[in-house]
Design goal:
By secondary structure, this protein is mainly α. It is 79% helix and 2% strand. The protein is built from 12 helices and 2 strands, in the order βαααααβααααααα. A two-stranded antiparallel ribbon has the order 1-2. α3 runs parallel beside α10, α6 packs parallel to α10 and α6 runs antiparallel to α11. The two termini are 29 Å apart. This is Flagellar motor protein MotP. It is a multi-pass membrane protein. InterPro entries: Flag_MotA_CS, MotA-like, MotA_ExbB_proton_chnl.
Length: 269
């Protein structure tokens, strides 16, 4: 189940707040307005939009909003629950046969797990099951890689357009060398585009791309556990052996918690 990932908006807001506080501390409230320059914003945003339009098709760009929104959501992965589910399925399959799992499959909400268990119930060979499930993982990784590429490219283009804006500002400044008093202010305005581009890239696009990559790694990790579990189910592995095999995917802390829950459930029984 997905829920709001508060760390993403919190990180963006904190980044902006700390930059603002640093400016206020050093320059004071009166100078804060000098850090806002509409032409510099237009150069960075306009250039970024133009570069993205050149780089991607319309259908790919339509995904950008959904991809960015995905970094504001977190998928909860219950590894311990997954192991318990397969140990229970394995126990039933050992006692009543694989076909008895057909009724259990209807209660499984995850389509990847459901597909794996159904393939095992249908008596498909283990090599074929592994091939089918691994192919699905590869397809998922490829789709996620394409989506992440939108943010990667935006993270590359934003600082570049900031630099272009700075160059434009420098050219305009050099045209007014006859007025020395305007050099300092004009130079400051020219550098603002670099500031905007760098902030946009390092506070929004690149961190979001990193978060999506991390989410993909976690999702693939969970699916690898499912494949191992389905293989154990298909081969009629002893539930205790299957459990020991799957718990190697748990971290030390998770394993400790899992053992405690397992012991409590035995005591209650």
């Amino acid at each position: 189940m997905k829920k709001l990932d508060m760390l993403t908006p919190l990180g963006v807001v904190l980044g902006i707040v700390f930059v603002g506080v640093a400016i206020l501390t050093n320059a004071g409230p009166d100078s804060f307005g000098s850090f806002i320059n509409i032409p510099s914003i237009l150069v960075v945003i306009g250039g970024l939009i133009g570069a993205m339009l050149v780089s991607f098709s319309f259908n790919e760009l339509k995904q950008l909003g959904r991809v960015m929104a995905e970094s504001f959501r977190v998928q909860e992965h219950d590894t311990q629950g997954l192991i318990s589910t397969f140990v229970s399925l394995s126990d039933k399959a050992r006692r009543e046969g694989l076909l008895s799992l057909e009724t259990e499959v209807e209660e499984i909400r995850d389509p990847f797990i459901r597909k794996g268990v159904l393939l095992a119930v249908d008596g498909i060979e283990s090599d074929v099951i592994t091939d089918i499930l691994n192919t699905e993982i590869i397809a998922i990784e490829e789709r996620h890689r394409k989506n992440k590429r939108l943010l990667d490219k935006a993270g590359e283009y934003a600082p570049a357009w900031g630099m272009i804006g700075t160059l434009i500002g420098l050219v305009l400044m050099l045209q007014n060398l006859s007025d020395p008093s305007s050099l300092g202010p004009n130079m400051a305005v020219a550098l603002l585009t670099t500031l905007y581009g760098t902030l946009l890239a390092n506070l929004v696009f690149i961190p979001m791309a990193s978060k999506l990559a991390m989410k993909t790694e976690k999702e693939v990790f969970m699916k690898q556990i499912v494949i191992e579990a389905v293989m154990g189910l298909q081969s009629g592995q002893n539930p205790r052996v299957l459990e020991e095999k799957l718990t190697v995917f748990l971290s030390g802390e998770e394993l400790h918690t899992y053992r405690l829950k397992d012991r409590d459930s035995v005591d209650e029984a």
